Amino acid sequence: NESSYAGLSVAAFTGPTCSQFNMTPPEIQRFQNLEIVDNTSAPILFINSIADPITPLASARKMHGLFPGSGLLVFNNSGVRHTAHFQNVTCMSKYEMQYMFDGTLPPAKTTCEVDEPNPWIYYAKQSNFTQQQAQTEL
Predict the structure, then answer these.
(1) DSSP for residue 67
(2) Extended strands (E) in 1-138
(3) 69 in a domain, yes or no?
(4) 44 occurs within a structural domain
(5) Among 107, 109, 120, 138, which is most buried by a count of CB atoms within 10 Å?
(6) Which residues span the domain enclosing 127?
């Protein structure tokens, strides 16, 4: 109700627009009868927040269940995963880096707390720090 860039204004614009797209994915990309996949060459790490409006945690749990040996990393905040990169989530960064380094998955049922729940405050702090650092170096 307060932002002209998000919330209902985005839903009101994108909903009707996207629903009118006449697109059909190629046959190879259609998921009709999902089966358990137990032969991936590396374990998959699924990452999701507890309140993602686009990809709910229930969907991440479902996919995690379809890939035995996969991992599920949850962060305790709203929003899709990419917003966590604008937040200070030390716990998640640690598990992501370990996974990318050697494929190690986090322990089962790992939920990370967000160090700064508001991504814009974290971004402003980082931006301010960067500006101060730049001025000091001049």
Answers:
(1) S
(2) 45-51, 71-78, 110-112
(3) yes
(4) yes
(5) 120
(6) 37-137
Tokens of 70: 């996969």
pTM for this one?
0.63
Compare 128 and 49 and report the one with higher pLDDT: 49
Decide if 59 is inside a domain: yes
Domain assignment present for 48: yes
Q: Note whether 112 and 75 are within 8 A (CB).
A: yes
pLDDT digits (tens, 9 = 90+) for 72-119: 999 887 664 455 555 667 888 899 999 999 999 999 999 998 877 666
DSSP state of 77: E
Query: Which strand ranges, in their side-by-side order, compose the sheet holding 110-112?
Result: 45-51, 71-78, 110-112
Q: Are 70 and 105 in contact (CB under 8 A)?
A: yes
Question: If pLDDT is split at 50, 70 and 90, which confidence band does 71 have?
Answer: very high
